[in-house]
């Protein structure tokens, strides 16, 4: 015989279930206040001295929006900066440890006009795979792992009705080891690239510039930017292996640097120093702030650095154009350019002669056969940042201390190559230029005497060269003169 269940006995249970289901959404609702407070703490950890306040929050399921934000720097004084930019976080989820993740943070499109003829449009601004730690005092590392991917685009800059600069998009991807949320984060790597970069000068109102662009076939061109960097937190090894801009029909410019000591501890100290520098503007204690800044830099060491350019036929075009405008042939024009290097390098400081000669040899080699040129710093042992500053202030052996090397077309410029150069500019054709600033004040003369006491006696040609700029001699006459090397 079957069992009869009386419904009346289940009424309390049913009522409890209804009450539970009715209160579940409230229990599981996102705490926008807690989420927002943890976000601003992460942002503040990345920008010491800044305070960020988010606007009112709106929660819609797993999405959280903040109506604007305010940024202030109490230590530096000044008024807070407020804006109404809406911050939309989608797919927000609180984790068991109190941290938060979000699928994306999107910002509104930007459309602004500079004047009646120019404007900027930026669309599709988004950060993806957001991570917000649970800690009440986030570290500078937490700011570095706030997002995994970022994208923006298209970007358009219009000038005179023409899309002068256009980008289909910019994409950045960060990878983390062991993982983005791991408390023992060890390494961060980042790569970035542009897509659909183009330039159009056809709308330029500068007729001379437009004519030159036409002569060089550069009215319209395309390009690409790339970035590759890795960071090991424990040792502070930061390797920016590529930060480049390649432009079709022009060439590729690349910067790279490798340093150690760039640890989270250094960043925290640097942040405090920067905050002290900001507060010193109001307190007047700039000396202590400067000392803190210099102390923070003592842990940074340079392993290597490089600035290179790989030509895509632009150098030949420029040399041919320059020679034609100067009314001379190309070899003479190149020789004149090389001969002017000493005067240009010594215009504001006394550069060692060996550095000048090496530069002359590199310029001559590149201009005679333009393919690639690279300036490298490769010290024998890691060189402290403050050591670099000290070397620059006493430049006698600066090239050796910083490991200066110049590579042209894959071949390093040697001391033997440099020895073939003069290291000094040619004497001016105007004899009156031998004595600079005859009409100058007594103070200027005294300054010249002081300089002469501190530098070795120069040859007549050197003296003439050092006064070439003051004599007012015409640069075109230099380009038309022929020099034997």
Describe it.
With 485 residues, this protein is α+β, with helices and mostly antiparallel strands. It folds into three domains: 29-108 and 123-144, no CATH class; 153-250, no CATH class; 308-480, no CATH class. Helix content is 35%, strand content 32%. The chain has helices spanning 11-28, 32-46, 140-144, 207-215, 264-283, 286-297, 314-326, 330-339, 341-345, 353-368, 385-393, 398-402, 415-419, 442-454, 460-466, 475-480; strands at 51-54, 57-60, 63-72, 81-90, 93-94, 100-107, 110-115, 118-122, 125-132, 149-152, 155-159, 162-167, 169-177, 187-195, 197-200, 220-232, 237-247, 251-260, 301-311, 372-377, 383-384, 404-408, 411-412. The chain has a 23-stranded antiparallel β-sheet that branches. A hairpin with a 2-residue loop joins strand 11 (155-159) and strand 12. Helix 8 packs antiparallel against helix 10 (353-368). The protein starts with 10 loop residues before the first helix and ends in a 5-residue tail after the last helix. Residues 1-27 and 431-485 have low confidence and may be disordered.
């Amino acid at each position: 015989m079957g069992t009869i269940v009386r419904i009346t006995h289940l009424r309390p249970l049913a009522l409890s279930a209804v009450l539970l289901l009715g209160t579940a959404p409230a229990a599981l609702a996102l705490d926008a206040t807690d989420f927002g407070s943890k976000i601003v703490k992460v942002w503040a950890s990345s920008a010491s001295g800044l305070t960020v306040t988010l606007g009112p929050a709106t929660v819609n399921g797993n999405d959280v929006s903040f109506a604007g934000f305010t940024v202030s720097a109490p230590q530096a004084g000044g008024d807070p900066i407020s804006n109404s930019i809406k911050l939309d976080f989608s797919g927000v989820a609180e984790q068991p440890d109190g941290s938060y993740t979000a699928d994306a943070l999107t910002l509104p499109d930007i459309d602004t006009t500079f004047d009646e003829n120019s404007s900027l449009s930026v669309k599709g601004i988004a950060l993806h795979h957001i991570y917000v730690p649970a800690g009440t005092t986030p570290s500078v590392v937490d700011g570095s792992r706030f997002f995994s991917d970022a994208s923006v685009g298209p970007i358009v800059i219009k000038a005179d009705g023409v899309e002068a600069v256009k980008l289909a998009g910019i994409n950045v991807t960060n990878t983390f080891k062991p993982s983005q949320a791991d408390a023992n984060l060890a390494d961060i790597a980042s790569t970035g690239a542009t897509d659909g970069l183009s330039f159009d000068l056809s709308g330029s109102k500068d007729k001379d510039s437009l004519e030159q662009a036409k002569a060089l076939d550069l009215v319209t061109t395309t390009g690409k930017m790339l970035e590759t960097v890795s960071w090991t937190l424990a040792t502070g090894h930061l390797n920016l292996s590529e930060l480049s801009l390649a432009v079709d029909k022009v060439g590729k410019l690349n910067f790279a640097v490798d340093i150690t000591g760039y640890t989270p501890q250094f960043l925290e100290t640097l942040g405090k120093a920067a905050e002290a520098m900001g507060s010193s503007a109001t307190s007047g204690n700039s000396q202590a702030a400067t000392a803190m800044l210099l102390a923070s830099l003592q842990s940074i060491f340079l392993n290597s650095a490089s600035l290179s350019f790989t030509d895509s036929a632009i150098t030949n075009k420029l040399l041919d154009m320059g020679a034609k405008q100067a009314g001379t042939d190309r070899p003479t024009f190149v020789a004149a350019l090389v001969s002017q290097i000493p005067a240009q390098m010594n215009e504001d400081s006394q550069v060692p002669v060996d550095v000048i000669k090496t530069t002359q040899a590199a310029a001559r080699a590149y201009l005679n056969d333009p393919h690639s040129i690279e300036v490298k710093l490769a010290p024998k042992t890691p060189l402290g940042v403050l050591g670099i500053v000290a070397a620059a202030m006493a430049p006698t052996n600066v090239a050796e201390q910083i490991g200066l090397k110049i590579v042209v077309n894959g071949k390093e410029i040697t001391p033997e190559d440099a020895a073939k150069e003069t290291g000094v500019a040619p004497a001016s054709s105007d004899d009156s230029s031998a004595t600079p600033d005859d009409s100058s004040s007594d103070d200027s003369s005294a300054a010249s005497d002081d300089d002469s006491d501190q530098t070795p006696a120069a040859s007549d040609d050197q003296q003439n060269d050092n006064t070439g700029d003051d004599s007012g001699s015409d640069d075109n006459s230099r380009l038309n003169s022929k020099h034997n090397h």
